[in-house]
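TL;DR need structure tokens for one chain.
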Amino acid sequence: MHSSWSGAHQIVFGQILLIVCCIFYLIWWSVSYRPGETVSRIGGARGILLLITAASGVIGALVNMNGIRLAPAAAEHWNGTVINIAGLASYFILLLITYAGFKRPVTTELVLITGWTVLQLQTINALNAYGVLSEYSFGRLIVVIAAASILSLVLYILYYRMKPWPAYYLAMVPLISEAAAMAVTILSVRFA
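>> reply
TL;DR here they are.
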């Protein structure tokens, strides 16, 4: 029982670190880039900020994934199968939509959106196996994650279609929506 609770706590801690990563990335983006300017994004203080951003993201993802790995066997029931199929389906669907919208190879944004979607679906499935989510919360989180993923994709498509300044501000919204979805995940966890 101890390992189960420990794993659930690891997932929550990993989610918090990923939110911190989003926050630092938003700060880095806002101080390192302006439309029409050529600014170094990795030098000096910006480089330190980027390093903190990357470190919190990598550590958060690793801790989160370890918590998923420690989930009890219940994580492998039909919900787990559905989650894995949904993760694979999301990749191909986003790939087709992106190709149709951009007429170019897979973008970094596509990989990030897909990776985040799959990780979050696996995360809530593991939390459900730990028994720290209500049935209502589990269903609600699937909807929240799906909405954040679709919103991210739509806004990234618009980002490439808009003028520089509107696009500059618009580019921050997907990250905010994903961080908000992770916050909802954390708030949905109920430890005894």
